[in-house]
Amino acid sequence: MDTIVAFAVFLAAILFCLVKGFSLAWALIVAFLAFFCMGLKRGYRVQALWEMAKKNEPKAMIVVRVLCYIGLLTGLWRSSGTISYFIYYGIRIISPTMFILIAFLLSLLLSYAFGTSFGAASTAGVVLMALARAGGVNEAVTAGAIMSGIYFGDRGSPVSSCASLVAALTETDLYGNVKRMLKTAVLPLVLSFGVYFLLSRANPITVIDEELLTLLKESFGVSAWMLLPAAIMLVLPLFKVPIRRAMAISVGAAFVLTVTMQGIPVLQALKTAILGYQPQNAAITKIMSGGGFISMLPTMVMNIFAAACTGLLEGMGLLENLRGRLAAMRAKIGLLPTLTVSGTLIIMCVCNQTISIMIAHQLMGSIYAKEGKEHEEFAMDIANSIVVIAGLVPWSIACSVPLSMLNIGISALPYACYLYLIPICYLFTKKFFFPAKTVNSEANIK
């Protein structure tokens, strides 16, 4: 009975946060308190519960450190002009009959460099939607292409907190995972490219808002030096530079450009890195403001408390019954379909990508281990199912927030073809092109 009460409190807190527009970090704090009190009621000592809660924290802190750098990047890439450069020249190469395809590719490129779907949606996505509305392009089609693009980087960029989380949980190499993600993305990307090419031909843009481009150029300039922070993030990992070091160098480069090229005082640039960018020109505030270390705080808190909650649930043995049911499901429909179905149900309940990945990992990890599956296979299965499906559940944060940024409803989701082509293509091609391997002893996938 106490388990039902604790989970009811958790779900009620999630619903309250969604309705009131509060961060789900508050719901996770409430969940932690509820599970902790449940443990006390069951006779566990405070010290024992605290040790359970801390069990997964080292993995959570790996992601938190990446999130710190992402926060700094999101502020300074805005202030240095790096993002405006991408947007300016991305729009400049648009031909009337290729608008949808360019919207997909520009969102894809920026999300890969940025490592965050929200950052790409709130910058390039907002601009592209404004151009679509002014140019008479179908808004739902445009938003669907943008949703597809922003999740390319969210899933498979080396600077993505989601990719770092999957690597940390499964104890796999981040760069190795990124390479495998790119391989499994080839077919979905080719198919998505074809779909958006055809949709572009059917939805040409009639006019491009030159005033917006002029505004970006006058506000930031368009010097090639602005590409330096992004180039650092793309090139250094190729030389095996640790991702956090590459991010730190990129932060430094963006800071120097902010001070030297944009003429922002040093103290103001430091404030931008911490609190986010606030343009002096009110006309571009909507598309360029935001970011900064503080913007990542809710996500950091969510990662820490999600790890603590899963540690408590694991330590008190509350996941064993669910694992038994999932093992029975696996025997009927297979390992990957079981992960996909259970992950989707978790997303629908907790409405959050990060929490869903952590819970699914706890539930399915032992099943993968008992079958001797490699950690890398588990990582790929998560990346090609839960990570992208979260962007398709309308009430999930991963879906609702980008759609609200784009000022569009769920009518865009049927056109977000990359998000459902990833799991579909992987499901049907995995055993042919990405055959599973087993290890001699049971892997310690926890």
Describe it for me?
This protein is mainly α. The protein contains 23 helices and no strands. Helix 4 packs across helix 14 and helix 4 runs antiparallel to helix 16. The C terminus is likely disordered.
Derived structural class: mainly alpha
Report strand %. Answer: under 5%
* Element string (H = helix, E = strand): HHHHHHHHHHHHHHHHHHHHHHH
| Radius of gyration of CA atoms, rounded to a whole number | 22 Å
- Sequence stretches where pLDDT stays below 50 over 5 or more residues: 440-446
Number of beta strands: 0
Number of H/I helices: 23
How far apart lie the N and C ends?
A: 27 Å
Please tell me what the overall shape is. globular
**Residue share in helix:** over 70%
Specify the biggest β-sheet. none
Mean pLDDT: 86
Summarize the structure.
With 446 residues, the chain is mainly alpha-helical. It has 23 helices and no strands.
Please describe the structure with a list of short key phrases separated by commas or semicolons.
0% strand, globular, 446 residues
Describe the secondary-structure layout.
Elements: H1 2-20, H2 24-41, H3 46-54, H4 57-80, H5 82-92, H6 99-114, H7 117-135, H8 139-156, H9 161-170, H10 174-202, H11 210-220, H12 228-235, H13 243-260, H14 266-275, H15 285-288, H16 297-315, H17 320-333, H18 335-350, H19 353-370, H20 375-383, H21 386-389, H22 397-405, H23 417-433
